Amino acid sequence: MRVIHVADTHLGYRNFSGKLDPERNLNQRECDVYDAWHAAIEITLEREPELFIHAGDLFDSSRPSPRAVVEALSGFAKLRDAGIPSVVIAGNHSTPRFRSGGSVFEILEEFGITAIWGEPQIVRLNGAAIHCVPHEPQAEQLLEDIRSLSLDGGADANLLVLHAGLEGVRQDYHEVNEIALAPEALAEREYAYVALGHLHKFQVPQVNAVYPGSLERLDFGDVEGDKAVVEVDLAAGAGSNGFLKRHIIPTRPMFDIALPCEGIGPAEVVDALEKATASLSLEGALVQLRLDLIQRDVWHSLDLAAINEMFDPCLHLVLRPGRSGLVIDGEEAESDISFAAFARREMPKGVDPDAVVRLALSYLDDAAAEETEGQAGE
What we know:
Blueprint: E1 2-6, H1 28-47, E2 51-54, H2 66-81, E3 86-89, H3 105-110, E4 114-116, E5 121-125, E6 128-133, H4 139-147, E7 157-163, E8 165-166, E9 180-181, E10 193-197, E11 203-206, E12 209-211, E13 227-233, E14 244-249, E15 254-260, H5 266-276, E16 286-292, H6 296-300, H7 304-310, E17 316-321, H8 330-346, H9 353-376
Parallel strand pairs: 1-2, 2-3, 3-4, 6-7, 7-10, 8-9, 10-12, 15-16, 16-17
Antiparallel strand pairs: 1-13, 5-6, 11-12, 13-14
């Protein structure tokens, strides 16, 4: 039995307001995730698997737009017409806060898609028993949900579909309502395959368990590696050379560039940016520039017109100080020290004044970064 496994398509995702697809007149990033979804559908049709699994976060919201629902149904309709059964579970993004109000997954069910969003269920298709465990915000309850579904000894294969993080498995971002299970939870029973969702980078936490990753890059913490649809050959067996195959999907280029700026002036920063990006293909790209250890006076003196012209081919540019914030010295530093002295003198007992100072200065730096980003995008 061959299975196509995807997850975290986040249909309806939007970003960078004002950046529209010229043909569809929709947010360009929204169109990007739709294009990635349809690319995955086309790969599935070409591969003709016995089963299509979506392991959560089909939509970016539990109340997706009509356009997002149409794009989802359009893809599923092609699979249905080709005789490829589909199973999808709800992830944390697609799970309504109050389940009594219903779910968009009920529309999917009416459309003939096996869509699991409430209670855990075992679905039997083409000889396989598919243990579907939708998102649950409490780790203990999620573990109970997994354990409530017993292995089917009469099935050709038992599969687990789960949307959750795993302790010790790297992720570069955190979300509301996310949970992380102990990896041992996946090894309690002998599943032929564990189809995971939630982490946006391709990872194989154990020999029979895979995070396929998102189909499109959604943030600057996800710039490395390819995006792909995962094909699983259960007959080959976990760990064998033929067990997993990745089918690469083209995505919008995204770059996260950290530029050392310690001790250099505004003109040198622009020159260094030009050298750092000379080999990059910036056409239609998303670019984040982090100027590490840049002095505050240099930051406010940057030639934003020159930077904007340099990155004009990009879809969007984010310009910000590095993670250490803006560097201050001289008279400006004295004013900041006076604020620190005030904080230490006036702060109530039990409150860390140094933490308050750091937080206050970080807010100022973030505000400066947002102001500069807006000016650079004009």
